[in-house]
């Protein structure tokens, strides 16, 4: 099975001026704390949320904007934003669509389940469950650089 | 700047020269009946400063009213002029209105930079208020109020700059969108993943990836920077691979550009669909665009009605009966509706521009592809033809969008007819090219050096391009963010500036209004800015009525109170805007006020505007009396204006001035106008004598009372003297005057009679003799009933030097 390493681009301040340019972009986005590492069962990480945008009309820009404005209903993100402050990064699906032959939703599931594997639980602000895709459903292995979200990286 | 003197000749109702010496800074109160020429003075000011007179600027009169400015009796070779002399004499100037080669021309005598600057700066100040202008601002729309204040405080210039900044911000945003950096960066990342199974987001990852690639080659060089990578490439480079590598890179470029074009094509289709839908909306109301062309006509019509240049209850165009107010309302609604159409049209135009740019971008991509060496190969000629066909399709689409005209919406192509491309065929071409590229690699798969070399070359190129895109993205984003910061700060300052100005002027309006209308249940008058989508769209005038906020004022206030508010707005604006001129002209502004408010207005002028030079004109006798009393001893001139057939409008001259002018003419043996002047002098003397001796004349209403002729007064005076058995009754001068008065009357009317200086001397001698009978040379006062001696039965002057019998 072919393995692909997935690296994350530099963190961006969780602010509207950085969010607005992402309107129309589909893919995954990752919200993480500025400093604090959450003590997940296996490891600590600043990552608190993995999100997804499957279509241009509900793009990464739109989803992040909803989190920022507090209209997404995810109070955890809003509270972290108001207390510690947040960063975000994202993966444009355009980059992965040659190697990922499934839906974006499945890619999100893959990432969340991989996080579960490595850290012992879903990211703290990912409330939903029922991620269906399992690693054996896909013909590739994604080696996700989770270290990126650890302190001092 | 205050006025030292003012002189007007041959202008409007003023036929002969009138001159007012203001002794540097005196204010002036002028009383005159309707038609006596007061407004001619206000007109003279308006023409001097603004080169037009608003109330004469109707289409019927034309030429900004200039053709109606010269006095009708002025001969063509005479000049009409207005001369203003100022506290700063550098600006003194006479403005003439004269015929030059049969063309009405105006000209300032002073053409220095000083007066040019002064007049230009004065244009921004409020100098003249007339009765008819009182309600203009109050009744104007919220947008007109904003526009008027914006013009004066320079806010409209600021708004223009704001518009430019906003456009710059939007252009940068559009540019960012059109460049689609994120797509290109991620397409490159996808390519890198394809090559080495990972994406690269920084230099460290890049070097790490290259390090891993070269491990199997066991090279003696450490990968630590770009130069070491160059060295490695130098080592791995084999001449025989050169062609294959170049071809591989060429295929990669073609594949990438075609993939990118696929994305561009989708954007073109989406944008065109949106454009077409907008066009369809426009086409639904077929007349929309025709209506937009009516907008200037409707605006002009509204402006004519607003300025009251046409006051009938008719449509000024078709002359059909129509209520003026209804017509104004209807015009406003239509103009507002058209502005919405215009926005739709602008949005469609904008969409059209975006499509054009997208197509142009797509065309460039295809043209670049066609230059690639891989497509020049004979084996790829079929592919090349396909791509050339795509180019042809794009060129056609470019022509179509260029020709698409919003005024001929029906000719705009449907989306399916605009551009059509076989996406499957395009994808097949990409697959075919990918396969050809793959063959090069497969053919060399056992050549580890070639594989590593080609991967390094490919990754290096992609990463380098990613960095270029990132750099360009960063620059453009920074520009956009900086511009947005500037714009936001500009908007904030602009808002603060306007709000603070409105707050300050509102306080003045409120103070002035309350001064005139204390305890009348109106308070907290404010000018409030209104915004829509963070843009100022107007200003409203709000006030508290019985403690409850209300707007607009004409909802509850009476005409008199509205006029009062109009005056307060003007006076507050004078304080706010007039930085240069310290004088104002108020032409008959209190007509609708009751007695109480009139007195308060007079007091307000004296108390709150005592540092201004005021030109106050009124035809209201009572108010004239009130103001005369209030301004007594406060550096005011009080004058009366009258109009007669011979001189037109004139200011009643003090007797001493008239006497001096008569005597100067006598000395110079100049008989012109002399008879008329002596007649006027005689009338003054007779009025004064009759007043002092309580001579009764026939009753006449108001102004008619002033217009008594000398013969009537003389005859009544003689009767009174006879009645009181006064010895003066037999003085021969009465008989002589009866005869010589003829000279004054003949020379003051059009007649063939030519005055003779000797005759006029005789006439003036008689007048002086008459005056000498009644005026004391010691106290200079006339004999008066106020000094009646009931013991002696005599009337005396104030000092008692002259007296005459006065029997009951």
What does this entry look like structurally?
The complex is a heterodimer of chains A (153) and B (808). The radius of gyration of chain A is 15 Å and the shape is globular. In chain A, β4 (38-39) and β5 form a beta hairpin. Chain A has five helices and eight strands, in the order ββαββββααβααβ. Chain A has one domain (2-149). With 153 residues, chain A is α+β, with helices and mostly antiparallel strands. Chain A has helices at residues 16-19, 60-69, 75-83, 93-96, 104-119; strands at 2-6, 12-13, 27-33, 38-39, 44-45, 47-53, 86-92, 140-144. The model of chain B has no long low-confidence stretch (mean pLDDT 84). The two termini of chain B are 59 Å apart. The longest helix of chain B has 69 residues, at 448-516. Chain B has 25 helices and 17 strands. Among the domains of chain B are: 1-127 and 578-650, 3-Layer(aba) Sandwich (Rossmann fold); 653-805, Four Helix Bundle (Hemerythrin (Met), subunit A), CATH 1.20.120. By secondary structure, chain B is of the alpha+beta class. In chain B, the strands form four sheets. Chain B has a six-stranded mixed sheet with strand order 7-11-12-3-13-14, sandwiched between helices. A five-stranded antiparallel sheet of chain B has the order 2-1-4-5-6, with helices on one face. Classes of the chains: A alpha+beta (153), B alpha+beta (808).
């Amino acid at each position: 099975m072919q393995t692909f390493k997935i690296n994350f681009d530099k963190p961006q301040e969780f602010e509207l001026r950085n969010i607005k340019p992402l309107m129309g972009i589909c893919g995954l986005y990752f919200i993480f704390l500025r400093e604090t590492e959450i003590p997940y069962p296996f490891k600590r990480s600043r990552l608190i949320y993995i999100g997804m945008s499957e279509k241009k009309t509900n793009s990464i820009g739109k989803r992040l904007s909803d989190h920022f404005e507090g209209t997404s209903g995810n109070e955890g993100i809003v509270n972290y934003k108001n207390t510690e402050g947040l960063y975000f990064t994202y993966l444009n699906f355009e980059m992965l669509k040659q190697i990922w032959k499934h839906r974006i939703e499945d890619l999100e599931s893959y990432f969340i389940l991989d996080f579960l594997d490595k850290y012992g639980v879903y990211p703290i602000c990912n409330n939903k469950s029922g991620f269906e895709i399992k690693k054996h459903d896909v013909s590739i292995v994604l080696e996700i650089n989770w270290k990126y979200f650890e302190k001092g990286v | 700047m205050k006025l030292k003197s003012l002189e007007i000749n041959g202008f409007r109702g003023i036929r002969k020269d009138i001159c007012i010496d203001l002794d540097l800074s005196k204010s002036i109160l002028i009383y005159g009946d309707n038609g006596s020429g007061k407004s001619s003075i206000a007109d003279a000011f308006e023409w001097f400063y603004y080169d037009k007179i608003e109330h004469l600027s109707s289409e019927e009169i034309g030429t900004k009213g200039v053709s109606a400015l010269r006095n009708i009796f002025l001969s063509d070779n005479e000049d009409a002029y207005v001369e203003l002399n100022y506290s700063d004499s550098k600006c003194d100037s006479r403005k003439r209105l004269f015929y030059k080669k049969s063309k009405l021309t105006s000209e300032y005598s002073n053409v220095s930079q000083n007066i040019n600057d002064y007049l230009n700066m004065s244009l921004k100040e409020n100098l003249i208020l007339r009765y008819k202008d009182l309600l203009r601002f109050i009744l104007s729309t919220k947008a007109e109020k904003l526009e008027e204040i914006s013009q004066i405080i320079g806010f409209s210039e600021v708004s223009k700059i704001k518009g430019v900044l906003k456009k710059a911000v939007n252009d940068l945003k559009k540019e960012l969108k059109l460049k689609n950096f994120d797509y290109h960066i991620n397409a490159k990342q996808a390519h890198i993943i394809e090559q080495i199974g990972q994406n690269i987001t920084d230099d460290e990852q890049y070097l790490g990836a290259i390090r891993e690639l070269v491990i199997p080659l066991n090279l003696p060089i450490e990968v630590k920077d770009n130069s070491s990578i160059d060295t490695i490439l130098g080592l791995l480079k084999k001449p025989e691979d050169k062609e294959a590598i170049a071809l591989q890179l060429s295929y990669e470029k073609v594949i990438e550009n075609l993939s990118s074009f696929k994305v561009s094509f989708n954007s073109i289709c989406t944008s065109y669909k949106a454009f077409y839908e907008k066009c369809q909306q426009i086409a639904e109301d077929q007349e929309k665009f025709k209506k937009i062309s009516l907008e200037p006509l409707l605006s002009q019509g509204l402006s004519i009605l607003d300025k009251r240049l046409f006051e009938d209850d008719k449509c000024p165009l078709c002359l059909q009966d129509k209520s003026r107010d209804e017509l104004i309302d209807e015009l406003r609604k239509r103009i507002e509706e058209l502005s919405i159409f215009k926005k739709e049209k602008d949005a469609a135009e904008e969409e059209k521009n975006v499509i054009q740019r997208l197509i142009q971008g797509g065309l460039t991509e295809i043209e670049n592809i066609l230059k690639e060496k891989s497509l020049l190969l004979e084996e790829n000629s079929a592919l090349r033809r396909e791509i050339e066909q795509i180019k042809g399709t794009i060129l056609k689409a470019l022509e179509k969008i260029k020709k698409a005209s919003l005024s001929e919406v029906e000719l705009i192509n449907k989306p399916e007819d605009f551009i059509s491309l076989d996406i499957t065929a395009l994808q097949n071409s990409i697959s075919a090219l990918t396969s050809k590229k793959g063959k090069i690699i497969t053919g060399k798969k056992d050549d580890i050096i070639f594989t590593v070399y080609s991967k390094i070359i490919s990754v290096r190129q992609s990463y380098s391009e990613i960095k270029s895109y990132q750099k360009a993205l960063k620059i453009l984003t920074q520009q956009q963010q900086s511009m947005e910061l500037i714009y936001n700060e500009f908007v904030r300052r602009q808002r603060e500036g306007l709000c603070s100005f409105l707050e300050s002027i509102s306080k003045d309006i409120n103070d002035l209004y309350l001064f005139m209308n204390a305890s009348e249940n109106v308070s907290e008058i404010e000018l409030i800015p209104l915004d829509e989508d963070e843009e100022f769209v107007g200003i409203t005038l709000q006030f508290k009525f019985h403690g409850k906020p209300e707007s607009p004022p004409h909802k509850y206030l009476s005409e008199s109170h509205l006029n009062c508010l109009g005056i307060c707005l003007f006076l507050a604006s004078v304080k706010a805007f007039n930085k240069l001129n310290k004088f104002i002209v108020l032409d008959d502004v209190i007509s609708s006020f009751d007695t109480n408010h009139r007195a308060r207005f007079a007091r307000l002028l004296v108390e709150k505007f005592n540092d201004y030079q005021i030109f106050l004109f009124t035809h209201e006798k009572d108010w004239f009396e009130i103001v005369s009393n209030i301004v007594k001893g406060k550096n005011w001139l009080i004058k009366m204006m009258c109009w007669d057939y011979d001189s037109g409008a004139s200011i009643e001259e003090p007797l001493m001035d008239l006497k001096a002018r008569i005597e100067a003419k006598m000395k110079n043996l100049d008989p012109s106008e002399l008879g008329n002047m002596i007649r006027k002098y005689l009338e003054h003397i007779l009025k004064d004598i009759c007043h002092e001796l309580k001579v009764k004349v026939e009753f006449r209403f108001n102004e008619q009372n002033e217009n008594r002729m000398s013969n009537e007064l003389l005859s009544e005076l003689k009767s009174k003297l006879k009645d009181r058995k006064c010895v003066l009754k037999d003085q021969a001068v009465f008989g002589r005057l009866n005869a010589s008065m003829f000279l004054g009357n003949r020379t003051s009317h059009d007649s063939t009679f030519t005055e003779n200086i000797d005759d006029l001397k005789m006439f003036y001698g008689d007048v002086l003799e008459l005056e000498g009978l009644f005026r004391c040379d010691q106290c200079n006062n006339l004999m008066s009933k106020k000094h009646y001696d009931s013991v002696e039965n005599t009337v005396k002057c104030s000092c008692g030097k002259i007296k005459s019998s006065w029997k009951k």
